[in-house]
Specification:
The chain has 299 residues and is an alpha+beta fold. It is built from nine helices and 13 strands. It has two domains: 119 residues, Probable inorganic polyphosphate/atp-NAD kinase, domain 1 (Rossmann fold); 159 residues, Tumour Suppressor Smad4 (Sandwich).
Length: 299
């Protein structure tokens, strides 16, 4: 039977206020479906995770994230902590952020009204979720160049869009030197040397439209790994347009791999993001693992 009670976590800063503007739509569609609901707005970073965890532990049968990938990331972390080794409480999404990568991957309608209608009618679907250290992720983990750019974008949080990304990229390229990384997939060493980036993908779409791991599927029981050897500035500028189209996988500088456990070590401090959220700026060892079918979504 479809779920009829929803705890809604709304990030008022998402989409430059778009989340607040769709609140009335959410209330109207929930009422139309005859669903009981509570809407709570977040007040700070990390608050969405706290609210989601508490709601799951309090017995709410579904938790809805209203925001972008950052909001979804936090809510998923709260749900997975509450699950404590089991399957999560079902997750609903109303995507109103700048990227909405995960929402698109699971088939959430872009129109907020249709997104709510879908979740009030859908049966929960099990998808894979990843973990790096204590952090859970839905889309993927990025190490190296993309994480450096994510740090710069984060410092420009008041501004979003392609122009912000390009300014951040330009700032990074002025000083970026590929760090040395040793990469192991399921215990086998697959790369050892200067690396532009290593991305571990649960889903194929990252960063609001980059298909870094284009063949990744969120319910196939494996992680896809894109390891790109060290490139100079010109090589990076040639490489990025191919990543946006997902046509980079055959490049001589790229290795595409699959597995359920990925280990990355380095003598250099590594920047790391999970779903675009910065989780480290100076990591030297990372262990990433897949948890198949542990996250349930309504889409």
């Amino acid at each position: 039977m479809p779920i009829d009670r929803f705890y809604v976590v709304l990030n008022p800063a998402a989409g430059r206020g778009a989340a607040v503007r769709v609140r009335g739509t959410i209330e109207r569609e929930m009422a139309r479906a005859g669903a009981a609901f509570a809407i709570v707005e977040t007040a700070r970073r990390g608050h969405a995770a706290q609210l989601a965890e508490a709601a799951a532990l309090d017995g709410w049968p579904a938790v809805v994230a209203v925001g972008g990938d950052g909001t979804v990331h936090e809510v998923v972390n709260g749900l997975m902590r509450a699950a404590n080794g089991g399957q999560s409480v079902p997750l609903g999404i109303v995507g109103v952020g700048s990227g909405n990568d995960f929402a698109r991957l699971v088939g959430v309608p872009e129109d907020p009204a249709w997104a709510v209608r879908r979740m009030t009618e859908a049966e929960p679907r099990a998808v894979d979720v990843g973990r790096v250290g204590d952090e859970w992720f839905t889309n993927g983990v990025g190490i190296g160049l993309d994480a450096r750019v994510a740090i710069q974008v984060d410092r420009r949080r008041r501004f979003r869009g392609l122009a912000t990304y390009l300014h951040a990229l330009a700032a990074v390229l002025r000083v970026f030197r590929p760090p040395h990384m040793t990469v192991e997939v399921d215990g086998q060493r697959v790369a050892d040397g200067p690396m532009t980036l290593v991305t571990v993908g649960n889903g194929g779409r990252h960063g609001g439209g980059f298909w870094i791991c284009p063949d990744a599927r969120i319910d196939d029981g494996v992680l896809d790994v894109c390891a790109c050897e060290g490139l100079g500035t010109l090589g990076i500028l040639r490489f990025l347009p191919r990543v946006m189209r997902g046509t980079h996988t055959g490049a001589s500088c790229v290795r595409m791999l699959r597995g359920t456990r990925v280990r990355v070590t380095s003598p250099d401090p590594l920047p790391v993001h999970a779903d675009g959220e910065i989780i480290a700026e100076d990591a030297r060892e990372l262990n990433v693992e897949l948890h198949p079918g542990r996250l349930r979504v309504l889409a």
